């Protein structure tokens, strides 16, 4: 059973998500704006397994709420929005959200995304064996989820970490867009595959000079190509 916090100013949206979540055996808490969500997360920081956060809300919008929550909690956040512009997605991922769903959405798909995010999060918490890869000045600590560029720590969004780790794990192998989306996102992807390109763009920006290791394969996908040591 997961403890899910649904944050949306539309009662019908909260009710719809709650219906599917409860049906799958999860418990649900609700907030109608970002300010309420921040207060609930601050009062009970260890209770929620995931937060579903709308963007456009009164009192405090979703972006501002996530920014405040990230100051004291690493709880997974899935952002919901009627706006699907790339700018909004980039802003959300830069704030540290785990996924982004555009309204209207399929409740079934939403629950699959929630399950995938929490499963990944639990696997990371339970991981114990050190796995560190080095490619020149680029160091990737799989266990600690730490990436450094020339000795300086780089802050990536959760999905950027997942994407980079998958690329590195398949160093030298051509990966189709479909394969990347399926394996990194962890569910049958129904959305816009430009989400992958957005994450690649953000990842390259964070890796600076080492962005050259991520090679674009036109008409196919991407490949991580670098010689390194463990």
From TrEMBL:
<dbReference type="InterPro" id="IPR001867">
    <property type="entry name" value="OmpR/PhoB-type_DNA-bd"/>
</dbReference>
<keyword id="KW-0238">DNA-binding</keyword>
<feature type="modified residue" description="4-aspartylphosphate">
    <location>
        <position position="54"/>
    </location>
</feature>
<dbReference type="GO" id="GO:0006355">
    <property type="term" value="P:regulation of DNA-templated transcription"/>
</dbReference>
<dbReference type="InterPro" id="IPR036388">
    <property type="entry name" value="WH-like_DNA-bd_sf"/>
</dbReference>
<dbReference type="InterPro" id="IPR001789">
    <property type="entry name" value="Sig_transdc_resp-reg_receiver"/>
</dbReference>
<feature type="DNA-binding region" description="OmpR/PhoB-type">
    <location>
        <begin position="130"/>
        <end position="226"/>
    </location>
</feature>
<dbReference type="GO" id="GO:0032993">
    <property type="term" value="C:protein-DNA complex"/>
</dbReference>
<feature type="domain" description="OmpR/PhoB-type">
    <location>
        <begin position="130"/>
        <end position="226"/>
    </location>
</feature>
<keyword id="KW-0804">Transcription</keyword>
<keyword id="KW-0805">Transcription regulation</keyword>
<feature type="domain" description="Response regulatory">
    <location>
        <begin position="3"/>
        <end position="118"/>
    </location>
</feature>
<dbReference type="InterPro" id="IPR039420">
    <property type="entry name" value="WalR-like"/>
</dbReference>
<keyword id="KW-0597">Phosphoprotein</keyword>
<dbReference type="Pfam" id="PF00072">
    <property type="entry name" value="Response_reg"/>
</dbReference>
<keyword id="KW-0902">Two-component regulatory system</keyword>
<dbReference type="GO" id="GO:0000976">
    <property type="term" value="F:transcription cis-regulatory region binding"/>
</dbReference>
<comment type="function">
    <text>May play the central regulatory role in sporulation. It may be an element of the effector pathway responsible for the activation of sporulation genes in response to nutritional stress. Spo0A may act in concert with spo0H (a sigma factor) to control the expression of some genes that are critical to the sporulation process.</text>
</comment>
<dbReference type="GO" id="GO:0005829">
    <property type="term" value="C:cytosol"/>
</dbReference>
<dbReference type="GO" id="GO:0000156">
    <property type="term" value="F:phosphorelay response regulator activity"/>
</dbReference>
<dbReference type="Pfam" id="PF00486">
    <property type="entry name" value="Trans_reg_C"/>
</dbReference>
<protein>
    <recommendedName>
        <fullName>Stage 0 sporulation protein A homolog</fullName>
    </recommendedName>
</protein>
<dbReference type="InterPro" id="IPR011006">
    <property type="entry name" value="CheY-like_superfamily"/>
</dbReference>
């Amino acid at each position: 059973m997961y403890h899910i916090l649904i944050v949306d100013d539309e009662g019908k949206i909260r009710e719809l998500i709650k219906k599917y979540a409860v049906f799958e055996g999860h418990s649900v808490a609700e907030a109608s704006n970002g300010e309420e969500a921040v207060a609930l997360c601050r009062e009970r920081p260890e209770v929620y397994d995931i937060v579903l956060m709308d963007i456009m809300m009164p009192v405090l919008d979703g972006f501002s709420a996530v920014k405040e929550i990230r100051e004291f909690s690493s709880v997974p956040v899935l952002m919901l929005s009627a706006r699907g512009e790339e700018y909004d997605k980039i802003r959300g991922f830069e704030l540290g959200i785990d996924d982004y769903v555009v309204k209207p959405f399929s409740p079934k798909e939403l629950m699959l995304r929630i399950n995938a995010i929490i499963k990944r999060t639990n696997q990371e918490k339970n991981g114990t064996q050190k796995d560190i890869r080095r490619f020149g000045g680029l160091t990737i600590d799989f266990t600690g989820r730490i990436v450094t560029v020339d000795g300086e720590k780089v802050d990536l969004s959760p999905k950027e970490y997942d994407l980079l780790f998958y690329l590195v794990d398949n160093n030298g192998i051509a990966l189709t867009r479909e394969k990347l989306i399926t394996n990194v996102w962890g569910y049958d992807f129904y959305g816009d595959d430009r989400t992958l390109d957005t994450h690649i763009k953000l990842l390259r920006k964070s890796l600076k000079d080492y962005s050259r290791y991520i090679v674009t394969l036109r008409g196919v996908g991407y490949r991580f190509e670098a010689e390194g040591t463990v």
